[in-house]
Design brief:
It contains two helices and no strands. By secondary structure, it is mostly helical. α1 runs antiparallel to α2.
């Protein structure tokens, strides 16, 4: 049962990881779609109103103000994306530190295990030597007793 539960747990973890990956991909594509729709809307708006805006001074000023607003929105979006990247970078650094600590702990555990195995082998060797000495001792006692 334990092995089957372990297999099921691994399967569930794999499905969960795939689901998270699909959600991340979906969210990224959805954001990309929104940005492309905004860009298309902007280009269509510019195309339809450019000639009217250039023809008079008030139109030019309105176009400049509109472009400045768009630039401001783009800068805000860029800042938001950069903050997201920095947050992801912090998470990545934290995970790297945890991984390094776990790897160091595993190396330490492996060295302790190796030392324990060496001590067990040494202990078994000493026990066998002691047994062989104890086995030889009764014979020596009999020989000494017969003298």
């Amino acid at each position: 049962y334990e092995r089957r539960f372990s297999e099921l747990n691994m399967t569930i973890e794999e499905i969960h990881r795939q689901t998270r990956k699909y959600y991340a991909t979906y969210n990224a594509l959805l954001e990309l779609k929104e940005l492309m729709l905004k860009e298309t809307s902007l280009l269509n708006s510019l195309n339809s109103q450019f000639q009217d805006a250039i023809s008079d001074t008030a139109g030019r000023l309105k176009l400049i103000d509109s472009m400045e607003g768009i630039l401001k929105g783009i800068k805000q979006k860029l800042q938001k994306v950069q903050e997201g990247i920095q947050a992801d970078q912090r998470v990545c650094n934290t995970l790297r530190e945890k991984y390094a600590a776990a790897a160091a702990s595993q190396r330490h555990g492996s060295s302790l295990l190796r030392a324990l195995q060496e001590e067990i082998a040494r202990n078994q060797r000493l026990k066998s030597e002691l047994r062989s000495r104890n086995a030889a001792t009764p014979c020596e006692v009999e020989v000494i007793g017969s003298l």
